[in-house]
Amino acid sequence: MTVLLRLAIVILAGLCGFAAQPAHAMTRIKDISSIQGVRDNLLVGYGLVIGLQGTGDTLRNSPFTEQAMQSMLDRMGINVQGIALRAKNVAAVAVTANLPAFAAIGTRIDVTIASLGDATSLRGGTLLVTPLNGADGIVYAVAQGQLVSGIQITGQAETLSQGVPTAGRIANGALVEKQVPGRLSELPEFYLDLTNPDFRTAAAIADVVNAYTQARYGKRLAREIDLRTVVVQRPERVNPARFLAEIGDLQVEPDTPARVVVDQRTGTVVIGRNVQVSTFAVTQGNLTVQVTETPEVSQPMPYSFGETVVVPRTDIAAEESGGPIGIVRGTSLQSLVNGLNRFGLKPTDIISILQAVKTSGALQAELVFQ
């Protein structure tokens, strides 16, 4: 068997395998939706980082750091009122964290720290006890620990930086002190929010869930409300966590809108699966203008009173290149791609053609520019 024959067999097998794949992919419900109310909560706090090697805030330029130090020392029984503090190993920071849904008391969560003053680096610092508040002003967690940040080494002629030295992170640096109100078992029904809202996808999710609950519980428990939300009633005497796990593993075929996304900065064109085009004819030509400057030196005749000057000489040539007009037929994404590929166009040319095709009404899709 020759090498060419083996290569032909391999290519044919690959094409057959590609054709055997399903055109529409099935996706789990939990990958395209989220449960309404089951989400993270944002926490924020104000604290002090100590132990810096002379890279902290300048207290004269950051008076809030000095006030925070005085308040902290007062709570510890040290009276520093009226004393000008000049420490340079302390920095005021903002501490943020995400409180996961149903996080129990005593759970550890990660925190992020960022400098508020003019500190140059937080590397090697330790965050003092910092209460973290929610949007309602209640303390839900307390953070403390040694943070990890970027580095910055400065010399007389060069500076070396890695990462961001004025921001850091403490893994498992906060303890949850209060649980967010609400339990999963208290919800009589669950609302599924679609990541990409679509009426057909919402109806497909409701149909798949109803087929499953009808076979398992003898009831149809799901209904679509709008293009974004599907509500599912909880069966009686059923563990809600297990029920949501079963619903999340069900597979549906999400519908995608007919959309063409164009990023003009990078020349990227993304064409959706459902994009359709009507038959249209197109030609693409480029106008090239070449300007050549060849200045010449003009010298006066001997024994004359003239001056030597530079005389400009400009040559302008225009050339327009373009191929014959071509016809793109068909109503599928493949026909559109094949038709554009026949011209051997650059991304910028494809973008201009798509704009013209959309204006002519032959592109049956939404054209989005980024």
From TrEMBL:
<keyword id="KW-0966">Cell projection</keyword>
<keyword id="KW-0969">Cilium</keyword>
<feature type="signal peptide">
    <location>
        <begin position="1"/>
        <end position="25"/>
    </location>
</feature>
<dbReference type="InterPro" id="IPR001782">
    <property type="entry name" value="Flag_FlgI"/>
</dbReference>
<keyword id="KW-0574">Periplasm</keyword>
<dbReference type="Pfam" id="PF02119">
    <property type="entry name" value="FlgI"/>
</dbReference>
<comment type="similarity">
    <text>Belongs to the FlgI family.</text>
</comment>
<protein>
    <recommendedName>
        <fullName>Flagellar P-ring protein</fullName>
    </recommendedName>
</protein>
<keyword id="KW-0975">Bacterial flagellum</keyword>
<comment type="function">
    <text>Assembles around the rod to form the L-ring and probably protects the motor/basal body from shearing forces during rotation.</text>
</comment>
<keyword id="KW-0732">Signal</keyword>
<keyword id="KW-0282">Flagellum</keyword>
<comment type="subunit">
    <text>The basal body constitutes a major portion of the flagellar organelle and consists of four rings (L,P,S, and M) mounted on a central rod.</text>
</comment>
